[in-house]
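Example 3.2
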Amino acid sequence: MPSGVAKKHWFTELLDLAGASTESVAANARELKELDDWFTESVQFMNDPDLSFQLFLPDDNVSFAERQNALADFCAGYNYGFGIGMAGRSNQKLPDDTREFLEDIQAIEAADTANGDQADENAFVEISEYVRMGVLLVHDELQPIARASNTSTTSNKVH
């Protein structure tokens, strides 16, 4: 889904869920502009060849339980957004890596977030990095149009 279409779809879903009226949208224009900027920045990070995309999670000075909950919330939001994004793709078969990753983040979303020890903290860091890289993998796997246009451009240069 091209970025502009995805953004429109995302904003529509967001405003519908919030039950936002025309008046409330106008009254919150500054906040909506911040969301728009955040969306654009996120897409840029997702497309960065240096893999600079980072999960939006609390800093290390926040309690471990809160950081675990934030990761679970991220996974829930990702799953929700993924479902919305795939709704218009007419049952496209997902690559095996994507399906496996989606199953994994569903499990992370459902995981118990009881207070943990240092071993849990280390696992949290590894799981967070797995989620970050998985998001980038899925993004790459589901961008066949971008890859196809790059391939055809390269092919045209060869001929």
